[in-house]
Each structure stands twice: as C-alpha cells, then as structure tokens.
Amino acid sequence: MGWLELTQEVDEETAEPVVELLSRYCRGSAVVEQQVGTEDGGQPLAAPITRIRAYLPPSDDQVETLLRIQQGLWHLGHIHPIPNLEIVPLEDKDWEH
C-alpha cells in the first residue's frame, strides 16, 4: 500500500485530542483546516467546519497503525461524537514535477 491521506472532521472540543492522536502515528504533524463562511451551495455555515488532515506513510505495519488510529478515534467518539475517518489512498507521483 502507498501513502494514505487521513481526514477527520471535528468540532472545536475534539480538535486537540484528534491532532495529538494523528500526529503520534502519522508522518509530520497533522494539519488543521477550518472552513468558515458558506457551504458550496451558498448557504451560511451554522458553525465553522474543522478538518484535521494527516498522512500515513507506506510501511510493513501500516494496516496495524491505521487500526490503532481508528481505535483511538472510536474511544474519543465515546466521549464526544465524531464522524467516520476519511481514508484516501494517494497515487505514487513524481511530486517535483
């Protein structure tokens, strides 16, 4: 398996523990993105949408690491509900070009 992009939507309460969890297992630190203003349809957002994005490198234990991340999110979800983790495999590319 190649690199995986992991994206988790959270609210302000759960952002910090999710960043900590993803930063523990992923390469580099997790990136926090916040969408304010309007949705794609032009409707105003009731509250800002916060997405935390991190990248899991290919490794022999990638599946086990992903399961640990999902287990950690499951435990956090029992404290404060969070949606499912979005997992997107990234294509191998020559990123310099």
Shape: globular
What count of helical segments does DSSP give? 2
Largest sheet: 4 strands, antiparallel
Average predicted local confidence, pLDDT: 88
Proportion in β-strands: 25-35%
Report strand order across the widest sheet: 2-3-1-4
Low-confidence stretches: none
Characterise this structure:
With 97 residues, the protein is of the alpha+beta class. It is 33% helix and 29% strand. The chain has 2 helices and 4 strands. The protein has helices spanning 12-25, 62-79; strands at 4-10, 27-35, 49-56, 86-89. The chain has a 4-stranded antiparallel β-sheet, covered by helices on one side. The longest helix has 18 residues, at 62-79. The model has no long low-confidence stretch (mean pLDDT 88).
Keyphrases for this structure?
97 residues, alpha+beta, four-stranded antiparallel sheet, 29% strand
Short synopsis of the structure:
The protein has 97 residues and is an alpha+beta fold. It is built from two helices and four strands, in the order βαββαβ.
List the helices and strands and how they pair.
Elements: E1 4-10, H1 12-25, E2 27-35, E3 49-56, H2 62-79, E4 86-89
Antiparallel strand pairs: 1-3, 1-4, 2-3
Helix pairs in contact: 1-2
